[in-house]
Amino acid sequence: MRTLSKNSENYRRIYEGNEENRDEAYHNGTVWPFLMGGFIDAYLKIYGEESKQNHHNSFGDSKGKHWNAGKFLNPLLEYAEKFGTIPEIFDGDFPHKPRGCIAQAWSVAEILRVWNLVKD
């Protein structure tokens, strides 16, 4: 979830460069994984049971019922499965290179918390 719309004139697509450039990008377009927690909470409150469907998650289980919201988590779950953690931030633009702290506790905690809401 980006901290700023790509359509904003202040959008910074990549977190790189000197300290000033990185500070400028930090809250102006980087993807903060922990924000997905609040997004999923809101999504479930709005769509509730109606958002359940058969959904293939990154762990290969396509038989159980999963919240449609799980599709938003899959890229982060796949990253965690591959690297064993989730970073602090990602670049705002593809390929969404990981940046900041390589293993951020609040990122991991929020993704695990909401994954437990959407899994069977």
Task: Annotate the secondary structure layout.
Layout (H helix, E strand, L loop, with lengths): L18 H8 L8 H13 L4 E3 L10 E3 L2 H14 L5 E2 L7 E2 L5 H14 L2
Antiparallel strand pairs: 1-2, 3-4
Helix pairs in contact: 2-4, 3-4
Write a brief structural summary.
With 120 residues, the protein is mainly alpha-helical. It has helices at residues 19-26, 35-47, 70-83, 105-118; strands at residues 52-54, 65-67, 89-90, 98-99.
Q: How many domains?
A: 1
Supply the number of helical segments. 4
> What share of the residues lie within helices?
40-55%
Relative strand content: 5-15%
- Total number of beta strands: 4
Helical/strand content category = mainly alpha
Instruction: Trace the largest sheet across and list its strands.
Output: 1-2
Instruction: Label the overall shape.
Output: globular
Question: What string, H for helix and E for strand, traces the elements in order?
Answer: HHEEHEEH
What can be said about the biggest beta sheet?
A: 2 strands, antiparallel
User: Rounded to an integer, what's the Rg over CA atoms?
Assistant: 15 Å
Averaged pLDDT = 85
N/C terminus separation: 24 Å
Weakly predicted, low-confidence segments: 54-66
